[in-house]
Amino acid sequence: QVQLVESGGGLVQPGDSLRLSCTASGSIYSINGMTWYRQAPGKERELVAGFTSMGSTNYAGSVKGRFSISGDNAKKTVYLQMNNLKPEDTAVYYCYKRSFWGQGTQVTVSS
Questions:
Q1: Is the pLDDT reported for residue 81 higher than 90?
Q2: pLDDT of 1 over the 90 cut
Q3: 10: left (phi over 0), alpha (psi -120 to 50) or beta
Q4: Terminal CA-to-CA distance of the chain, rounded, Å?
Q5: pLDDT tens digits for 6-41?
Q6: Rounded Cα gap, residues 9 and 106, in angstroms
Q7: Which of 41-60 are b and which e, b meaning 16 or more Cβ less than 10 Å from the residue's Cβ?
């Protein structure tokens, strides 16, 4: 069993930054494969950024250059640094690992 808990969401203005965290517990031994998704109202859930099974990173084209994923294996935690936020980044952000989802954290970008 795996539990994923996200935190760090909030209401910010365009151009602001936020850092999301996702901490795993249970039978997880590596942050490899941990991925951030997001779902905006009325839209499908989409991949934002993640670690592959080999530990490299990948990003959605819409966030490249603005978002950065990092992690700490000892803490079983991944972070999503989001800079230069835009209104279109508004969504619930979810952490995912090996068929398990977190509860999500709301990010709202609005002036």
A1: yes
A2: no
A3: left
A4: 40
A5: 999 999 999 999 999 999 999 888 999 999 999 999
A6: 5
A7: eeeeeeebbbbeeeeeeebe
User: Which value, to the nearest 10 degrees, does the dihedral of the CA atoms of residues 85, 86, 89, 93 take?
Assistant: 20
**AA letter at 61:** G
Our separate counts of H helices and E strands in the chain read 0, 11
Amino acid, res. 76 = K
Q: Is the dihedral of CA 22, 87, 51, 2 positive or negative?
A: positive
Coil, strand or helix at 44: coil
User: What pLDDT score does 28 carry?
Assistant: 87
The sign one gets for the Cα dihedral 30, 32, 33, 37 is: positive
- Burial class, 22, CB count within 10 angstroms (exposed 0-12 / middle 13-18 / buried 19+): buried
